[in-house]
Design a protein that fits this description.
Rossmann fold, single chain
Length: 245
């Protein structure tokens, strides 16, 4: 969806989309962030320092506990292979500018891998894909300056065209907007070392959603974490080797 197509859609469908968005906010239950630790050390083997940062999905909204959320499930897949020193920085409702502020206010610390989950609230806030892309570059600059990771993983915006909480045509419109954001980020990262885009739900638009039809549930978090571990673990030998040099 090009800029002119987005703005044409807003012009033609604007009043309907606005009413649908207002309705969704009124009727969709607001799920809490699950309880559980936000930092710690677990596992055995070579040390991996991991930071997970972002929005409600990073915070685990849709799961009953952090053990069932993204962070807990990712640790479950990583701990048999390495000692993970980890930290979770996530707040429900964050968009990209909010995440920049959160990271800038966080103390400087070294991490091997930083995982960012952000974008859904940028879509609902109608931030243009080109402007969103600039915010991802700014996030990468803040992450590199404060945490110096060897790998920065941008988790793709989930397929919002599968969010059952959104009625049509709002669901279609948000889905196309999110898809364009992911495509622009993917194209941008093709020439940038140390940053990668990870898509966990490209083929499962509505599988494993939480009761609100908007956030991942435990099944989706487990799938997400499993796929992420397959990105992180192959780099463990390289991480260990580079740290020893």
């Amino acid at each position: 969806m090009t800029d002119w197509e987005r703005y044409l859609g807003l012009t033609l469908l604007g009043p309907l989309l606005w009413m649908q968005g207002k309705y969704v906010r009124l009727v969709t239950p607001r799920l809490p962030e699950p309880p559980g630790a936000r930092e710690g050390t677990t596992g055995q083997g070579p040390l991996l320092r991991l930071l997970i940062a972002g929005d409600s999905a990073a915070a685990g909204v849709g799961a009953a506990t952090q053990d069932e959320a993204l962070c807990g499930r990712l640790l479950a897949y990583l701990r048999p292979h390495c000692t993970v020193k980890w930290r979770l920085l996530a707040v429900n409702g964050l968009d990209s500018p909010g995440l920049v502020k959160l990271l800038e206010a966080t103390s400087v610390e070294r991490f091997d891998v930083v995982l960012l989950s952000i974008g859904v609230n940028d879509v609902t806030g109608l931030r243009s894909p080109s402007r969103w892309l600039r915010w991802q570059d700014q996030l990468a600059s803040v992450v590199q300056a404060r945490f110096r990771p060897r790998l920065l993983i941008h988790s793709a915006i989930p397929p919002m065209h599968g969010f059952t909480a959104l009625p049509q045509p709002l669901r279609w419109f948000m889905g196309r907007w999110a898809l364009e954001m992911n495509l622009q980020l993917q194209n941008s990262l093709s020439e940038k070392n140390g940053r990668t885009l990870h898509c966990a739900f490209c083929g499962a638009a509505s599988e494993g959603l939480a009761a609100d039809g908007f956030h991942p549930g435990p099944i989706a978090y487990d799938l997400w974490a499993d796929e992420l571990s397959k990105v992180i673990l192959p780099g463990m030998a390289l991480v260990k080797q580079k740290r020893s040099n």
